[in-house]
Amino acid sequence: MVIESLPRTDIKGQTLGFAGFCLDLSPAEQSLLAPNLADHRISDLIQQTRLPALALDPQGTIIFFNQPFLDTVGDPAREVICRPFFERFAAIDGASEPPLALIRRTADTPPHTFESTMETADGSRRLFSWHVTALRNENDQMSCAILVGDDITSQKAAEEKLLLTRRVFESTEQAMLITDANAAIISINDAFTRLTGYSTADVIGRNPRLLQSGRHGQIFYDQMWRELSERGNWHGDIWDRRKDGSFYPKFLSISAINDECGRLTHYCGIFHDISERKQLEDQLDRLAHYDSLTGIPNRTLLFDRLELSTSQALRSGGEVALLFVDLDRFKAVNDALGHDCGDQLLKLVAERIGECIRSVDTVARLGGDEFAVVLPDVRAHANAARVAEKIILRLQAPFLIEGVNCEVSPSIGISLYPSDHHDPEQLLKLADRAMYSVKAAGRGAYRFYRDIATENANPD
Asked: Are 57 and 86 in contact (CB under 8 A)?
């Protein structure tokens, strides 16, 4: 709720009362909370971060924001909520596509960032780098986009000027290093030492690879130097290592410096620590891809894993099995003992299913008492059957909850890639159909979809 009021005074300036209005923001907040049970945690996370952050609906309208965003734009909450982000606050210079298309593409394409200019509270125009996290509904459509911003104005200015004077070099808060044309370090500033722990004596004459964390392969660095050679600059997120051995993420920009004849003379690197942003991104990613109750993957991540497994099987000629697991008698337990006990039961079910599969397999909660298991590279149908048998045996053992023995059993349907279908959505539907045939036949068992298809093709 936003409340605004103004005093009413008489001709002598004495206060007679107040006139104002109230703006209920709950509809906008509820629109963010709707997609799944984890979203209230997402709104808490947005409110707690010191970085400007907001949420947009699929039309680009602001449906949630934090105080740092309000401080950045300098507008009251009532002038921000339900306003279009791009038309009202942000502009993308030289964009070749509509802003909403850019958001959708950025959400699906690493590194999930785009830049925009904004007019801030002090009237200046600042450049922001926005990281986009998409939340999707059960149909895998984006229900909202979370944007977390980082003011990179000063870093961009430092990149463009590339002044080698000691005054600018030492006064910037950005860590900087200068190398010669052979990539040997010739100078660093104080911010470099504060961030990395390396002194001038430690690094002069050495190659910047001494900072490498080992988390990036040679392909990553080959691509970096290729872009630097072709374009004269490279920028992006990278993990490095401090002198004490600790790892940290940073935003790094490298520029090639040429003399008046166009000959390469130096490289300049500018970077800063982005640990807070990375932690926030990781938390948002987990909330967007993992079930908040059980902690296992949700429907969105299930389909990511399934698509990856089927793509690998297509190249290798292998098979993938998809198990659809539905709990029998769960509603009776939930109604008799209450939702809290029902939630405990679902957590224990997720744990037991996880004990029945390999590390390369994936168990996910689809919603309610429905689970799914992806088995990549099953090699033989009998292997999928054995996993189903293990799950049935494991879940049939009683669950002790609040001193009460609760009994459920799983009905499991199994579909196979590529023999049953090649599309992940269809594979889930076929496994679901096979599961329902198990329930119709008495529950507590498993069936392959191919057996149902054979029966339908050859009726008695």
From this structure: no
